[in-house]
Amino acid sequence: MKEKTxxxxxxxxxxxxxxxxxPIYQTTAYEFRDAEHxxxxxxxxxxxxxxxxxxxxxxxxxxxxxxALEGGAAAIATASGAAAVFYAxxxxxxxxxxxxxxxxxxxxxxTLAAHTLRRFGIEGRFFDVRRPEELEGMIDERTxxxxxxxxxxxxxxxxxxxxxxxxxxxxxxxxxxxxTVASAALCHPLKHxxxxxVHSTSKYTTGQGLALGGMIVEREGLVDLIxxxxxxxxxxxxxxxxxxxxYTELPLPPFTLRTRLALLRDLGGTxxxxxxxxxxxxxxxLPIRMEQHSRGALAVxxxxxxxxxxxxxxxxxxxxxxxxxxxxxxxxxxMASGLLSFEVGSREEAQRIADSTKIFKLVxxxxxxxxxxxxxxxxxxxxxxxxxxxxxxxxxxLIRLSVGLEDPEDLIEDLRQALEA
Length: 421
Ligand SMILES: *Cc1c(COP(=O)(O)O)cnc(C)c1O
Fold this sequence. Notes:
The protein is of the alpha/beta class. The chain is built from 15 helices and twelve strands. It has two domains: 10-274, Aspartate Aminotransferase, domain 2 (3-Layer(aba) Sandwich), CATH 3.40.640; 286-420, Aspartate Aminotransferase, domain 1. The strands form two sheets. The chain has a seven-stranded mixed beta sheet with strand order 1-7-6-5-4-2-3, with helices on both faces. It has a five-stranded mixed beta sheet with strand order 8-9-12-11-10. The model has no long low-confidence stretch (mean pLDDT 96).
């Protein structure tokens, strides 16, 4: 099946009532047939619903449909994108280990890797996504994951996924792509050699700024990388917390299985069924929305690139952008999503522009049908030092735009009056 069909149908085969729409199974728990059935479910002799912290039928449709869209073996939904990123790390690393993360990443991912994980004894190491060769000097026997963003938010410096994959494979380390900005409609990192994909579904997936959510998708055959790999001994040895379960011995995608059985069980960052249902509605229109977001952003980027007050525009869909060749290689028909950033002379000038737009609302979100303007240095990336800001590709005069689904002509007019106000 093709993408637009998968987005509407995958993962749902109807039910006894014939409901065309996926129902919201708003329940905390599930009734067992009898005591033996309950025991079988807990022992994994039978698969089925136990408790919504672990699984839910509405969330299950969302997970199956998302995995199908990304071309993965399985997917697991979390309460937010931040939870998905943390669980991806926590599923592989323990005290003494390290994770190598692209410097060009979401602010929350950077603070997680640099500060919060450190308190758990896990070290974050940082490489420049434009220089994959830096990875060679950073990977050691305690490296458990290489993590990057396909279109980094907000620097928009794209990664060469296949090149990163080559290095990760050579070392037997898992490669995880945050595909939030490109979305499951425009890029499929698993097809280019990533082992895992994470998303903040709060952005383009829900699409109208309606609900927080996250997703981790695992590739087909990841077990072959994990089995017998000393880096991932805890997947190959009996898990004492699950009476001796060995994840690689079950015929189920092991990364997703362990996230569910160990992490959702103990940490509990599970989505509500209602939010999963909202995300299913979002997925149905994701492929067609991404086409319009991309068209609108390209028109806005072309306008800004020609404006005398604008120093530079970052948009991988612009032929003059350094990421343009990678956008052509990895993004569907070169469509580069709705996010762009541009630089003006100073922090003050950037804040004045952000205060002057009328259609673009001053909000810290992206991927909404409504256009958004953000000044990262004073908001999303405020906790970073001046050097960290430069390294993350976020100069003080940088403005980020999330181009919504309005008419691009109105958006350009709004920016014109704000720039010239
Ligand atoms: C927003 C975002 C996150 C965090 O997701 P939440 O759903 O807000 O927790 C992670 N990565 C990227 C690229 C994001 O844009």
